[in-house]
Amino acid sequence: MAKPKRRYVCQACGGVSFRWQGQCADCGEWNTLSEEAPETVFSARHDLSSGGRPIAFEPLDTPGQALQRRATGLAEFDRALGGGLVPGSAILMGGDPGIGKSTLLMQAAARIAEMGGASAGPVVYISGEEAAGQVRMRAERMGLAQAPVQLAAATSVRDILTTLGTMAPPALLVIDSIQTMHSDQIEGAPGTVSQVRGCAFELIRYAKQNGTALVLVGHVTKDGSIAGPRVLEHMVDVVMSFEGERSHQYRILRSLKNRFGPVDEIGVFAMAGQGLEEVGNPSMLFLSGRENPVPGSAVFPAMEGTRPVLVEIQALIVRLASGATPRRAVVGWDSGRLAMLLAVLEARCGLNFSSAEVYLNVAGGYRLADPAADLAVAAALISALGDRPLPDGAVWFGEISLAGEVRPVAHSGIRQREAAKLGFNRAFGPPGGALAEAGMRYADIALLPNVVDRILSAT
Q1: Which of 57, 249, 362, 380 lies at 20 to 30 Å from 128 by C-alpha?
Q2: pTM of the full structure
Q3: Range of the domain at 397
C-alpha cells in the first residue's frame, strides 16, 4: 500500500495543499498552512447506490407549523434577528475582541431565562474562554446574578452533548466560543479548520433535532471576517457581526445573513457601566449639534435593512503647494468610490481636486455601504472646496453615475420621513423622489453640475 501523502490545510479558508508553503494559494494569507493527518486511502471502490435508508419526499403544499419566534427581551437584538430567536436555528456572531459579544449574549440569556418558565426549557451558557467565576463576576456587575441561567466552563463537545442529553433541551444554548471547542474524534488542536467544522456540525445537529436556539461566538481575523473555515457561515442560519470603535460608546449589531428575516438589519447599543443599553433613536448618535452650518458637512439618510439612520458626512479640502503629492484619506466609506467620485467631479463639473488633499469622514465612526450616499458625499466635497455651507435643515441622497447623472434609489419616502421626524425640512435627491407629505420640500437633482450650481451660487 502506498504511503499516504501529507496534507496542509489553510486555517483561514480551508484550502488544501500537498506541500508546505508560506502563502496560501487560495486566499493569499501568510503562515496559515498547518499539517493535518491524511485521510485513509482504500484501493477498493465504494458503491453508494444501495444499502442506505430511503428518504421521504413531501409536496410543497404540505401544511406545516407557523414560525414561532422567541423574544430576547432586547428590542434591538430582536430587530437584527428579524423578530427574535427561531427554535432550532443556529446563529454565528463575530466581532473584535472586547467589543461586547459576551456581555450582549449574557444579557439576552438572562432576559430569556427570566421571561420563560420551566416549560420553555432552561437557558445554558457555556464558556470555553473564561472560568465560570469570571462570567459570574460580569453577571454581578450587570445586576444579572439572580437570573436562572445554567453556567458552565467546558471545551469538550463530547462532554457538552453528553450533559445536555441528560436534561431537558435548552431554549437557548450559547457557546463562547466555537474556536475553543474540541472533539476527541478529530485530530488537530482547537481552532483548526477540521475541529471548528466538526464541533460546529455536532452542535448544530443537536440544536436542529431538539429545537434549541444555538448561538456560536466566533473569533475574527485582522480584516474583520470570521475566523475558521468559510463553510461555517454556510452551515448556520444567521450570521451577525458586532461592530464598533472602542473609542466610542455605541455598538452596532449587524445581520449579514438571515434565513428567517431581512438581511442588513442593525441593532444599536451603547456601552454603559451596567452593560449594553439599547438606543431607540440611533440617528441622534451620528449627528453633531449642528447649531451653525459649516462648509463640508452634509446629512445623508442611510438605509440599514428596513431602518433609516441619518448620518453626517464631513469633508475637508486642503490646498497644497505646487509639486506636492496630494493625499486622500477616508474613514467610514469606500476609498475606491471616493476616487471615482472625484474623477466624475473633475471630468463632468470642471472642479480641480488634483492639487488638494481630500479628507472624508463619516461622523461617529459609522461605516457606509449604501450607494445612495454618492450625492451627499459630492455635496460635502463641493461645499468644502468652495467654502460654502450647505442649506440648513437639508438631507442629500442619490447614486451618481460616471456620466454625472443622479440615479434613483430605493426607499426614498422612508428616508424623507425619518429626516422630517428629526426636524429636517428639505431634501435633495434624484428626479421622481418627491414625498407627497407636508413639511418636507423636495428638490430634483438630475445632473451633478446642478449640485455645483446650487451650492457655489448660493449667497
Answers
A1: 249
A2: 0.75
A3: 285-456
